[in-house]
Amino acid sequence: MVSGDILEISAPRLNEVGRMAKVEEVPGLAENLVLLSKEQLSLAELLVSSGQQEIFAAWDASGIRDAEKVEFFNQISTLDRNYPGGIERYLQNARGLLQAAARAENPLDGWTPSVPQDGFQPEVGSEAFMEYEDLGAREVKGCCFVIPAGGLGERLGFSGVKFALPAELVTGCCVLEVYCAYLRGFQSFAERTSGQPCRLPLVIMASGDTESGIRALLESGNYFGLEKEQVTILVQEKVAALASSDALLSMEGPYKVGTKPHGHGDVHFLLHSSGLVRRWHEEGRKWILFFQDTNTLYLTTFLCSLGVSAKHGLHANVVTMPRKAKEAAGSIARLTHWDGRSIVANVEYNQLEPLLKATGHHEGDVNGPDGFSPYPGNTNELLFSLSEYVSELEENGGQMPEFINPKYTDESRTKFKSPTRLECMMQDFLKVINASKAKVGFTRYPLTFGYFPCKNDIITAARLASQGTPPHGAASAEAAVYDANCTMLRLLGVSVADAEERHWKGGPQLMGPAVVLWPDFAPSMLELRKRLTLPSAVCIASGSTLEIRGDVYLRELELNGALRIVAGPGVTLHIPKLKVQNRSQSFEALTDGEQNGEAPEELRIRGYRCVTYELERIEATEAGVYTLTEDKKLIPKLE
Ligand code: UTP
């Protein structure tokens, strides 16, 4: 038995009443049997034997809406094909988990959590951190990148795909563009060090809800500088929505089953069934990184995490951050079973408190003396060694343990507020790997470099902020980008003005100078240190904005305003001494009218806009090596 069995709750055998019913006796279905092909008839039998006869009660007599009945069976056939073991197995699994949920059973019964000790905590900016980055930079050529992006983003109130959201407003560049820029940055880095061409594969898992939006975004951005062949889109299918604890299918009409996303855990199955990971492994690639669709900070510390994995031979490395007790983020825990098994895995936030209480920690999920839970928070950035990942996939087929999370109308736990479905999570790969063989560890970073997804609408963000919980909204995601960049600069000795509290509709937000450092300028702290040749002579005043792109070396800078420095392809730009003072760019709250609909959605979800009063642009586009003179002229660099 592998450790992954922990969440499997044995499903009861098929509903006995359903088994006995015959299709000829089912009202609604009996009158329509003549329409069915052999394959459709066996699907009908399967539905009936799975206790679904009720759904046919609303069917019209034969001759009325017959085409829709055929469509219904086409949909059932698709649902059947897309779930391992078919729809019968799906309903069986769902019924088992729904009954356990109705009894409020603890899915982690038998397991005791403890704070894991298997972590690495490189202090950002320290020599040890940069040594890890150096090692990571040498390993990155063998890395593959995977982003599940099939989620609906229902909680955000943004109608486009989340990848299309601006990562921040100073550049307005979207999240996917930032991710692709990192891949390009890592590629050129690898090419420079190895002298070999390097193309890093990117896989995006989309769903029916996001595929066309993601494809359109990639096309409109010309794949953001990646080659089209580097990017693979895998599409996850949805699963049937369920209306009751007996796993009755939830119908959107008499002939259409409601469907819902099955969760990001599908990514492992798709990587396996598409044959992609096997191919990568055969090509000699060594690492596979999973991360999510709206937290661009993942890649800021990635080379260090990769160095940690490489140095310590980790088969799996989970990137973690300090987590506030009760924050809606999973926690990493060591789980020990009474039978002796022990694993390091993610415990979802809604499971941690009951699990702690059930195992003698009466206070539940609470903060320690440092103001954070002792259990590290899961950022859902997971780095696997490819060869171990491939062998695990061969064994488990990429099947993740499933769970169900029905929202009940009342304490009787019988009726749902809305249809539910089985789900699975990407991070549960940690529960199915062979714990006795795999070396699982985690890397901790401070909150500044943690998890700042853009997932909540502005009202929810305000409510969470008022409760002292991370708001996970658009404003906090944006501020986090500036803050991480300012922190890196400060750690290197740059003088950067402190952040100030701003008040947006989504709650209070600390915002410092708005600094954006592109990965072709510095994909790591180690590179940033090389770029700033005299950090103590760089000073960024409050209210400033700064963007730097490309091969730029900066010595002295006095910035009190807005500045954009761009070195285009083939350009190296040296800036010995620069002083910029102007009216800058400023973040200004939306008016009520703008907030209520006049402003674009991407502004309404954050509650402010970025207004440019004055912006100094220093841009070198023609290939060559230049120096910027003190009176801001570009001249060819003299050796
Ligand atoms: P989230 O937890 O942010 O959920 O997903 P969501 O589905 O995007 O948003 P809501 O719950 O509807 O508001 C975490 C990551 O998993 C992906 C998301 O795209 C995001 O990168 N995801 C989620 C999938 O790829 N498939 C799914 O079925 C669900």
From TrEMBL:
Alphabetized UniProt keyword annotations: Nucleotidyltransferase, Transferase
Keyword Nucleotidyltransferase (UniProt): yes
Catalytic activity: a monosaccharide 1-phosphate + UTP + H(+) = a UDP-monosaccharide + diphosphate
Named cofactor requirement(s): Mn(2+); Mg(2+)
Entry-linked InterPro entries: Nucleotide-diphossugar_trans (IPR029044), UDP-sugar_pyrophosphorylase (IPR039741), UDPGP_fam (IPR002618)
An example Gene Ontology molecular-function term: UDP-N-acetylglucosamine diphosphorylase activity
EC code(s) of this entry: 2.7.7.64
Gene Ontology biological-process entries: UDP-N-acetylglucosamine biosynthetic process
SUPFAM superfamilies in UniProt: Nucleotide-diphospho-sugar transferases
Family stated for the protein in its record: Belongs to the USP family.
Xref: PANTHER family: UDP- GLUCOSE PYROPHOSPHORYLASE (PTHR11952), UDP-SUGAR PYROPHOSPHORYLASE (PTHR11952:SF9)
Protein name: UTP-monosaccharide-1-phosphate uridylyltransferase
